[in-house]
Amino acid sequence: MKIALVTTFFPPANGVAVNRMHAFARYLAEKHEVVVVTLGKHDALVPADCCKNFTTCYVRNHRVMEYLRHHPADTRLIHHGKSAVNLVMARLQLSRFAMWRRRALRQLKQLHCQHPFDAIVSSYMPVDTHLLVLEFLKSYAGVIWIADMRDEMSRNPHISRCEQQRLRRVELAIDQHAMAVTSVSQPILDDFRKLMPNVLRFEQIRNGYDHDYSPPLRPFNTRFCIGYFGSFYGNRKPHTFFLALEQLCDEIDMEIHIATQSVNFDVPPALIRRVHLHGFLSYQQSVEMMATMDANLLILPKLPEFKGVFSGKIFDYISVYRPVLAVVDPDDVAADLVRELGCGYVADVDEVEQIKSMLRQAHADWLQGQIKHGSPAQVRQLHRRVQVQKLSALLCSLHDDASSGKPA
Predict the structure, then answer these.
(1) Is 377 within 8 Å of 202 (Cβ atoms)?
(2) What is the DSSP letter of 233?
(3) Is the distance from CB of 226 to CB of 254 less than 8 angstroms?
(4) What are phi and psi of 146, to 5 degrees?
(5) Which helix (H) or strand (E) holds 111?
(6) Pick the residue with more confidence: 364 or 233?
(7) What's the pTM?
(8) pLDDT tens profile 75-87
(9) CA-to-CA distance for 225 and 290, rounded, in angstroms?
(10) How far is residue 69's CA from residue 8's CA, in Å, rounded to a whole number?
């Protein structure tokens, strides 16, 4: 099959969304021909180094809109200024990707005329990717469309009612044209199943880990070492975890290693000697360092109105066969996965006493030489290649049904 992947998140950019889309392209290209239509600083058609069946078509946005993108080098003032402008544009329902969408649509049509696509996969957010495909299908209705949802749309509790209503209209349009919907977790997928009753195929495609590193069977550290890899932002902060650590200082000999690009949190004075900050690490460096820890920390805030949040790092933690310290919503999917695989410990993110109990148990198991981790078979199922194989199978099934004249 020839497949178009429509996204604004793709290398050389970084981030969880980028990793998901890059994995889609790389692993679909093991069996299919893939063309990625994405956002770039310049217009360019670039063959991939890793695979001959994979080409990236970069389409630039309006230059003014490029200045509104957040960059790690931005000062705090510039960061807040960009956020304010983006917030105003959102309130006015002005998309900063509108120009990119129009130009990318022309490019997608041109590529289709040269060599027709069998299927298109577009990924939200932003909503412009789905709007682009809806416009494309007005001219080429026979192309299979899978709408990938990394996040909730109209059910997102953190957006305005006006924006929810606008996204609901888009969901209704998707319901009439998409042959399948995919998402990162079952709760999010179940929500879309209710919102889009005319879509007959739904598939969970988790993010997963994306490396083939074999963690060494190394001796334990002389102190109980806990690692955290990634950023803290919004209400995802280590406050309750630090509070629990402070109360265990005299009880447990431990040290915490935090690898993050942005230090936007305060380390309590009592923990200064125990908390070691590391700068930015590449993905491979992060994975290798995770494997040197005695346990790795996951912190996710509670979102009562919103379920289905895994966080990409949980799969990397599981992949290195070290226990996961899941300081999360105990009734959400991350906690469920840790319990299902028996690969760590779970504590309510808002309950300091639970976090202390979790740390005591993890430390006691460590002293006894016990390491909680998933089985090799369970861990292999979480590799991105395996997850994308599910997407490939869905595409092939839809293609076979369309070829035979059967309903999707």
Answers:
(1) no
(2) B
(3) yes
(4) -115, 125
(5) helix 98-114
(6) 364
(7) 0.87
(8) 666 656 656 655 6
(9) 10
(10) 12
DSSP conformation class of 280: -
| pLDDT number for residue 379 | 96
Among candidate residues 281, 308, 287, the one with its CA nearest the CA of residue 384: 287
Please give the average per-residue pLDDT across 264-273, as a whole number. Answer: 89
What is the end-to-end Cα distance of the chain in Å, rounded? 17
| Cβ-based neighbours of 250, under 8 Å, separated by 6 or more | none
**Range 56-82 average pLDDT:** 67
Q: What is the pLDDT of residue 408?
A: 46
Q: Are 334 and 300 in contact (CB under 8 A)?
A: yes
Whole-number Å distance between alpha carbons of 355 and 346: 8
Q: What are the b/e assignments for 126-158, b being 16+ CB within 10 Å?
A: bbbbbbbbbebbeeeeebbbbbbbbbbbbbeee
Asked if residues 299 and 349 have their Cβ atoms less than 8 Å apart, the reply is yes
Structure tokens at 248: 């265990």
Query: What SS3 state is found at 1?
Result: coil
Choose among 1, 144, 115: nearest CA to 57: 115
C-alpha dihedral over 374, 376, 382, 388, to 10 degrees?
-170
Q: How many CA atoms lie within 13 A of 14 on its CB side?
A: 10
Could you read off the pLDDT of 290-335 as tens digits, one per residue?
999 999 999 999 887 788 888 889 999 999 999 999 999 999 999 9
Tokens for 77, please give them: 């003032």
In single-letter form, the type of residue at position 387 comes to Q
User: In the predicted model, what is the mean pLDDT of residues 170-196?
Assistant: 96
Contact status, residue 18 vs residue 11, Cβ threshold 8 Å: yes
Mean pLDDT across 145-156:
93
Contact between 113 and 87 under an 8 Å Cβ cutoff? The reply is: no
Closest to 28 measured CA to CA, from 205, 209, 189: 205
Query: How confident is the prediction for the chain on average, in pLDDT?
Result: 90
- Counting residues of the chain whose pLDDT is more than 90, the rounded percentage is 70
- Give alpha helix (H) positions in 178-227: 186-195
* Whole-angstrom distance, CA of residue 243 vs CA of residue 355: 9
Whether residue 407 is predicted with pLDDT greater than 90 in this model: the reply is no
The number of CA neighbours under 13 Å toward the Cβ of 11 is 13
Tokens 């293609």 locate to 399
